[in-house]
Amino acid sequence: MASVGPSAASTQPALPSGAAVFKTIPYAFILPEILCGTWVWILVAATSVSLPLLQGWVMYVSLTSCLISLLLLLSYLLGFHRNSENWKVLDSLYHGATAILYMSAAVLQANATINSEFGTNAPLNYQLNSAASFFAFLTTFLYIFHAFSIYYQ
Length: 153
Known about the structure:
The chain is mainly α. The protein has one domain (27-152). 70% of the residues lie in helices and 0% in strands.
């Protein structure tokens, strides 16, 4: 019968703290998630929002995700996790749920891009919405990759 002792617990990889966060996969993706998410809401805010319900959801998801990811990054940098396994579960659940929300926002932003192609001030709004759609899908991919790569550590 196998016993679970300190040696079994030490085989689990330690959660990063401090600057090691930027060198450890998947935690190194938190900063790009924040930066790409920031580009999404900056680009959407720069357009003349013609579909406020669609792009309002995009703004809500991107801004909320950016702020929560920033808090999560700061908690890793300051070592609030104290190497608890619960933080891996929290991190995975957060990034999985955010990936689903970001996918919905990216699809709505793509719809807003299509609708802005022939509107007023069409070339500029179309280009800004296209860039926002690109960053929304890129951010979605980063959140998906982060959520799944926790399982493969």
